[in-house]
Amino acid sequence: MTQQPRGGATGIPAAVLALLGGLFHLIGVAGGALLLAGDGDLGRALLTFVLHLAVAALLITGGVGLVLAKPFGRTVTIVGSAVALLLYVVVILLGALGIHFLGLADSALPLGYVVILCAPAVTTLVLACAPPTTRWVTSGWS
After folding, report:
1. CA separation, residue 27 to residues 20, 51, 104 (Å)
2. Residue 117 to residue 130: CA distance in whole angstroms
3. Residues 6+ apart with CB under 8 A from 49
4. Alpha helices (H) along the chain
5. pLDDT of res. 86
6. pTM, 2 dp
7. Which of 46, 48, 55, 50 is nearest to 24 (CA)?
8. CA 9, 139, 81, 43 torsion: positive or negative?
C-alpha cells in the first residue's frame, strides 16, 4: 500500500502566496496611512487603510499558520483569499461606476490590471482548498 504525500507541494506554495499577498496589502496599509495624513477624503482614506489592514492580517496569519502546518492556517488563508477576491471585485465594479478607492486613480481600469490583481488571490485560494493542503495541515510537522 502506497502512502499519499503530505501535501507540502500545495501547502507551502499557498503559504508563500498568502504571505506575499499580505505584504502587498501592507503596502496598501502604508498608502492608506499616507492618505489619512494628507488633505484627501477622510472616508476614502480610512476605508483604504482598514480594508488593506484586514486583508493583510488575514493573509499573513493564514500564511504563517500554513508554514507551521496548522489547520487554522488553512482556514484563515481561505477566508483571507476570499475576502481579497471579494474586495477586488467590488473595487472593479465601483471603478466601472466611476467610484474609485483603495488608491486607484480616477481612470478606467485596464483588463490587465484586473488579471494581475486577481490571479494570485485565486491561486492562493485554490491551493489552500486543495485536498493535499488539508493533509499538510492535519499531519503537522511530525
Report:
1. 11, 12, 13
2. 21
3. 29, 32, 33, 35, 36
4. 8-37, 42-67, 71-96, 111-129, 131-139
5. 92
6. 0.88
7. 55
8. negative
